[in-house]
Structure formats: structure tokens, C-alpha cells
Automatic annotation (TrEMBL):
<keyword id="KW-0479">Metal-binding</keyword>
<keyword id="KW-0223">Dioxygenase</keyword>
<comment type="subunit">
    <text>Homodimer.</text>
</comment>
<protein>
    <recommendedName>
        <fullName>Ectoine hydroxylase</fullName>
        <ecNumber>1.14.11.55</ecNumber>
    </recommendedName>
</protein>
<comment type="similarity">
    <text>Belongs to the PhyH family. EctD subfamily.</text>
</comment>
<dbReference type="InterPro" id="IPR012774">
    <property type="entry name" value="EctD"/>
</dbReference>
<keyword id="KW-0560">Oxidoreductase</keyword>
<comment type="function">
    <text>Involved in the biosynthesis of 5-hydroxyectoine, called compatible solute, which helps organisms to survive extreme osmotic stress by acting as a highly soluble organic osmolyte. Catalyzes the 2-oxoglutarate-dependent selective hydroxylation of L-ectoine to yield (4S,5S)-5-hydroxyectoine.</text>
</comment>
<keyword id="KW-0408">Iron</keyword>
<dbReference type="GO" id="GO:0005506">
    <property type="term" value="F:iron ion binding"/>
</dbReference>
<dbReference type="Pfam" id="PF05721">
    <property type="entry name" value="PhyH"/>
</dbReference>
<dbReference type="GO" id="GO:0016706">
    <property type="term" value="F:2-oxoglutarate-dependent dioxygenase activity"/>
</dbReference>
<dbReference type="InterPro" id="IPR008775">
    <property type="entry name" value="Phytyl_CoA_dOase-like"/>
</dbReference>
């Protein structure tokens, strides 16, 4: 049994920041793919890149209809893949949409999507997690500051930072309805959070994250050093961001939903092992254990 070194310790007694030990862009310079060299360099520097119209507005309408179909299906609502808003009980997210929906399965396989993931990660990729975030109006809760990798390392056992997410807007992302915020450049620092992971943490963390939440001091330091960028965009626009970006989003108190589909691609060279800082694995609909590459 080979022991895997924990390069990114977290969830111990104290918070600890360490420099990133992994590349950001894993493909060789000039490697073929849909992302232009200068955009890939920007991704390396900032930890994110935006694509104004990754998918056309007519196509997006089809994905929005699929989202509506899913969230109005009583069987989906009753399924453990659905997470509700704590206050309104409206559906907040539905996980594993790439498996329960043929429409979203096709989106994952679309070369405009998976081709970019392969280029950033420099290998074949599989889906570690997918979800639709509904973020309905009139009070849907946001997601407090966090690094996704901190959770995917601590709780899902991803060894290295060779994972990339894409958030594709399904509704207008205004500057007022709870859009994604990222601290540019924060992906180059890993912030190990203080506090052990409770059993069944996911049952709470997907509504309101606690374990894996950075301190005010650390967030102040990071935000002062890197600033904060708010992402807005038309339906069909996409934000690709590195797994270790410090990011979050605010509540949505406007009447306008901020819905997106969120797909997490992991390199087939970085498959999940045992959690690095949690008593048990999370369910597979949150952290996949089927490593078959997207074809
Ligand atoms: O725990 C997770 O895997 C999820 N939580 C957040 C707030 N972002 C990443 C991911 O979807
Ligand atoms: Fe996140």
C-alpha cells in the first residue's frame, strides 16, 4: 500500500498557508486546443478565464428548460442529489446532472467544454462533480469564501491541484443577483483551514459551509493582496476557474434568478484516493469514483 504524501495539509488545529506546489496549466506550451496561448497565460496568472458566449443563447434556452424540468420533478426533489435553500426550501442545487440528464451529459462531452478542460489539465479528464445551481430570486443564499480544492482534497481525496471548474450561466448574471466572485491570483496560495471535518459534513456544508472556511484575517490578507473580481455575463457565458481559487458569491435578493451549470473536470492522472482530512468519503454523487475519461 503506497502512502500518498499530503502536499496540502488542512483541517488541523490551526490555519496554515503554503505556496501552491502544482502547475496551473498542465499542457505543454503551444499544445493544441481551443484556448489561445495568451488566454492560457492569463489563466495561469489569474486562475480564471472567461468565454463571452461559450454556448449560443438559443442553446442555453434548452439547458434552462432542462433545469426547470429537473427542479419541478418531485422524484428529483426527493432525491439526495437535491439540496434545498435553508429558508425557502426551494431547490438550491441538484448534483450529478451529467448522469441523471442526457442533456447535461451532452454538454459535458461537447468539445467546446471538455476540449478546454483537457487543454488546461494536459490529459484526459473525468467529471469529479457536476451540479446546477438555481439561486432563485428573493433571498437565495450565497456561498461563503472558500477554495474548492481545499474541500476536494480534504474530503474527496484529490491529491494534486489538477482540477478545473466551469460555470456556465443559464440566466443573466447581473452585478446584483449574487454572481461569482474570485480573488485573482489567489490560486497560488493554499490555505489549510483550522477545524476538523465533522461526520456527514456534506449534509450541512452544501447549504452553508463551515469546515474549510478561511479566517477573517486570512481572507483580509488575500483580498488586500489580490483584489476581488465579480463575474457578470449573458446566458451562455462561461467562467473557467482553477480548483484553488478563493471564491464565493453573495445572496440573491433580486427577483432575477442567477442559475448556472457547474462542471468540475479532474485529470485522470489525479484520481481520488482516500480523504486527506475527513473521517469518511463523501457520497459519489458529490465526489465521483468513476474515473472513466469523458469521451
Ligand atoms: O463541497 C463542494 O464540493 C461544493 N461546494 C462549494 C461551495 N463549491 C464547490 C462544490 O460545488
Ligand atoms: Fe465553490
Amino acid at each position: 500500500m503506497t502512502t500518498i504524501t499530503d502536499l496540502y495539509p488542512s483541517r488541523g488545529p490551526v490555519e496554515v498557508a503554503v505556496p501552491r506546489k502544482d502547475p496551473v496549466v498542465w499542457s505543454a506550451p503551444g499544445a493544441a486546443g481551443p484556448i489561445a496561448t495568451d488566454r492560457l497565460e492569463a489563466f495561469e496568472r489569474d486562475g480564471f478565464l472567461t468565454v463571452e458566449q461559450l454556448i449560443g443563447e438559443d442553446e442555453v434556452a434548452g439547458y434552462r428548460r432542462e433545469l426547470e424540468r429537473l427542479i419541478t420533478d418531485p422524484a428529483i426533489r426527493a432525491d439526495e442529489r437535491s439540496v434545498v435553500e435553508p429558508r425557502s426550501e426551494e431547490i438550491r442545487s441538484v448534483f450529478e446532472v451529467h448522469r441523471i440528464s442526457e442533456v447535461f451529459a451532452n454538454l459535458v462531452r461537447d468539445e467546446r467544454v471538455v476540449g478546454r478542460a483537457r487543454q488546461i489539465l494536459g490529459s484526459d479528464v473525468y467529471v469529479h462533480q457536476s451540479r446546477i445551481n438555481v439561486k432563485p430570486g428573493f433571498g437565495a443564499g450565497g456561498f461563503y469564501w472558500h477554495s474548492d480544492f481545499e474541500t476536494w482534497h480534504a474530503e474527496d481525496g484529490l491529491p494534486n491541484m489538477r482540477t478545473v471548474s466551469v460555470s456556465i450561466a443559464l440566466t443573466e448574471n447581473h452585478d446584483t443577483n449574487g454572481g461569482l466572485m474570485i480573488m485573482p491570483g489567489s490560486h497560488r496560495t493554499f490555505l489549510g483551514c483550522a477545524g476538523a471535518t465533522p461526520e456527514d459534513n456534506y449534509k450541512k456544508s452544501l447549504q452553508m459551509q463551515d469546515a474549510g472556511t478561511p479566517s477573517d484575517e486570512a481572507l483580509t490578507e488575500l483580498a488586500s493582496r489580490h483584489g476581488i473580481r465579480l463575474f457578470t455575463g449573458r446566458p451562455g457565458s462561461a467562467t473557467w476557474f482553477d480548483c484553488n481559487c478563493m471564491h464565493g458569491s453573495g445572496d440573491n435578493i433580486t427577483p432575477f434568478p442567477r442559475s448556472n451549470v457547474f462542471i468540475v473536470f479532474n485529470s485522470v492522472e489525479n484520481t481520488a484516493v482516500e480523504p486527506f482530512a475527513a473521517p469518511v468519503r463523501r457520497p459519489e454523487f458529490i465526489g465521483a469514483r468513476d474515473f472513466a475519461p469523458v469521451r
